[in-house]
TrEMBL record:
<feature type="transmembrane region" description="Helical">
    <location>
        <begin position="150"/>
        <end position="172"/>
    </location>
</feature>
<feature type="transmembrane region" description="Helical">
    <location>
        <begin position="436"/>
        <end position="455"/>
    </location>
</feature>
<feature type="transmembrane region" description="Helical">
    <location>
        <begin position="518"/>
        <end position="537"/>
    </location>
</feature>
<feature type="transmembrane region" description="Helical">
    <location>
        <begin position="64"/>
        <end position="88"/>
    </location>
</feature>
<dbReference type="GO" id="GO:0005886">
    <property type="term" value="C:plasma membrane"/>
</dbReference>
<feature type="transmembrane region" description="Helical">
    <location>
        <begin position="549"/>
        <end position="578"/>
    </location>
</feature>
<feature type="transmembrane region" description="Helical">
    <location>
        <begin position="398"/>
        <end position="416"/>
    </location>
</feature>
<feature type="transmembrane region" description="Helical">
    <location>
        <begin position="278"/>
        <end position="299"/>
    </location>
</feature>
<feature type="transmembrane region" description="Helical">
    <location>
        <begin position="210"/>
        <end position="231"/>
    </location>
</feature>
<keyword id="KW-0812">Transmembrane</keyword>
<protein>
    <recommendedName>
        <fullName>Copper resistance protein CopD</fullName>
    </recommendedName>
</protein>
<feature type="transmembrane region" description="Helical">
    <location>
        <begin position="598"/>
        <end position="620"/>
    </location>
</feature>
<dbReference type="Pfam" id="PF09678">
    <property type="entry name" value="Caa3_CtaG"/>
</dbReference>
<feature type="transmembrane region" description="Helical">
    <location>
        <begin position="306"/>
        <end position="330"/>
    </location>
</feature>
<feature type="transmembrane region" description="Helical">
    <location>
        <begin position="476"/>
        <end position="498"/>
    </location>
</feature>
<keyword id="KW-0472">Membrane</keyword>
<keyword id="KW-1003">Cell membrane</keyword>
Amino acid sequence: MGTDGPSTETPSAARVARSLILRRAPLAGWFVLLAVVLASYGSLSGTRRYAEARNPFPGAFVSAAAPVGYFVTSLLGAVCLGALLLVVMTSRPEPDGLLDAAAFRIHLVAERASLVWPPAAAAMVVIQAAHDVGVGPGDLLRSGALSDAIGVSETAGAWIVVAVLGVPIALTLRLNTRWLGHAVLLVPTVIAVVAPAVTGNAGQGPDHDYSTSAAIVFAIAVSALTGLKTATALTATTPTRAVQILQVFCGALAVGYGALLLYLLVPGVTLGSDFAHLGLAAGALLTAVWLSDCWGLFVRPLRASAYSVIAMLATVAAMAALAATAVQVAPRFLAHRFTSWDVFLGYQLPNPPTVANTLTSWRFDSLLGTAGLVLAAMYSAGYVILRRNGNSWPAGRLVAWLIGCAALVFTSSSGLRAYGSAMFSIHMAEHMTLNMFIPVLLVLGGPVTLALRVLPAAGDRQPPGPREWLTWLLHSRITSILSNPIIAFVLFVGSPYIVYFTPLFDTFVRYHWGHEFMAIHFLLVGYLFYWAIIGIDPGPRRLPYPGRIGLLFAVMPFHAFFGIALMTMASPVGATFYRSVDLPWLPSIIDDQHLGGGIAWSLTEVPIIIVIVALVSQWARQDRKVASRSDRHSDSDYADDELEAYNAMLRELSRMRR
């Protein structure tokens, strides 16, 4: 797994090199100009900004360094994410998985950005902590109070996450030049890109459940769009149609979710503030880039060489404006007195969770709720395409998938989530639904099989497309490891113990991003486990049916013990959070936890019954297929015996005539 790329010592390579130098010059100049503008803005507005927020002034250096550092570090993460996406989408890997020469040039962009990303994030830990507590970084380090400052600065903690994740990302990019390695790195890169966004203004105050979910999507979309534009321009890569579609999609998400964030964070009466002006400027730049991408994709192709540089400069400028907003308090919070519910929930819960309240207290989750709707629409579109092509698809799979998606929307957006964020018992019902009920339905839908039957194969001279990417992932080593029945079993059984019986739950339960992380984690772990048990989609070799039934029953005692442990504990988990929320109609948080333990114990039976029915049906269907093949083979053997006897009789008659 070396990093040496193919030799490019050719005249065409020399022309490409000159082109790259010409392309990198505008970016370098533009980058320096934006950094100077941000530093000037931070210095000139520093005292006023801190006074408006009623925060102590940390000094001119921190006031200028905070927006510049946020911009630089966020841009490095965006370039890393965009370059990884570009490698995954445009590479024509060799049979052994190594990147081709064109993709290797893009890989170098990701590698070089990743080398600077962790130290930049580490520097931001100190700068952000100094910014939030109002002390100069020198004084903070000399006094030995850095750890205390980080403890009260959520965003400084987020930069630690970026620095920690950035190290393995950089090492992997340094040592690995295979397609699969780049695809896998997308996961930690996305987490690192999202971390600072969810701990800033979006994660605070009233309606922060709405703004946090929106910030997650917005951060990914803006970073991916900026990174794709930058990597494309730096490497003189002509975007494929798939890349163009992704850019339009990311642009739409950035504009839509950015508008939602602006609405939530900037009341109409504060549109004259610096925060509003910077947000509107970033929105205008992103909208212009998105409309241009739409024009180039659907109307008339734009000149790739010129437009890629212009679009890159515009998206980078948008990130600079966003960095300036990230280091100041949103106008909505300047004149608002927070209640404990504003801080910990973002909304009011004046009444207990009756059936009517649970069904009507909707707060739509723009991340998981939207994901459920999109997944349902994509599956339905695939079903329609397949039927129009004259192919059949079991209606039961369609029904299972749609019910699973509807359950995901309900669980993430109804009163089940609203009350589940404040009560352990309702949270446990939400957890069990996400971990044991929804994955069963989604697995029975067979989405990968449907996608493989609908997606067209790439032509001989075309770059690999979604069908090829999906096939590579299915047959990859990482998929083989994660879907191994033993690994899936350990993840499925061990996750609740690790989350709820360690300090992790105390952290996750306090923040909306923690609830989103738990929901996604338990959903994916449940999907992996049930894929190994009742999976329809192709994948690694599975256990025989008796082994699958044994593995399924082996889960039950672990879940029973988990529920019993919650029911018998004398001290509540997440006690600090639940006491801070202090629901007036909830008499005892320990009694509520005991109820949650009972829910965890009892709700395992329903999905287990569904899985057993599905497993027995699959087993019986498999036996019928085997019996049918055996019957056909027996009939064939019988016919062969008759033919041989007839031929022997003819030979005997011929001999007798002689």
